Amino acid sequence: MLVLAFIGIILTSVVSSGGWAYWKAIIPVYAAMALWLSWLMRRSQDIVRPITLWHELLHWIGLFAAIFLVELYVHSGLFSRNQASLFALTLLSLTVFTIGVYVETTFILIGIVLGLFAAIIAVAIEYFYAFTIPAFLIGIGIVSYMIWFSHRRITNSGNPGSSPHDGPFS
Question: What is the count of structural domains for the chain?
Fold first, then answer.
């Protein structure tokens, strides 16, 4: 489950549409995996209550309905596809966490990690320029210094006492 989420995060960050189609397609996979695990855990019991499986199924149908609403927001222009992808990840993390409360505690941890993924993406988007602009300027400074030092070495190569192997880091 976490590998699928990591792929979605990469798509959300790299693809201009924000990976929205991926998140819409992967949510049924998460639902099927969670329902299968629930059935697998309960099949050894003498009586498997259908009501429990229906509760879990309704739980995932609630997520599908919420994603449908997000799709309406995207089509009406309220959300961009990138925002919708992040929102889908947030809804998925809440759904997985909540199913962990009722089915298997492992899902609680997966839901928390998915929520952390969503938070990290939000912070990274917010502070992207705060990190990239200084890094870009530092890079320009380093390249400028190396060009200046190289140019200075070439002009001083005829002077006695200067070595042509002197570099900026030697």
Answer: 2
Q: Region 130-156: what's the mean pLDDT?
A: 77
Residue 152 lies in domain: 128-170
Please check whether residues 161 and 91 belong to one and the same domain: no
CB 1 within 8 A of CB 113: no
In angstroms, the CA 170 to CA 168 distance is: 6
Listing DSSP states for 55-87 in one string gives: HHHHHHHHHHHHHHHHHHHHHHTSS-HHHHHHH
What confidence tens digit (pLDDT) does each residue in 67-98 have? 999 999 999 999 888 888 889 999 999 999 99
User: Does one domain contain both 16 and 62?
Assistant: yes
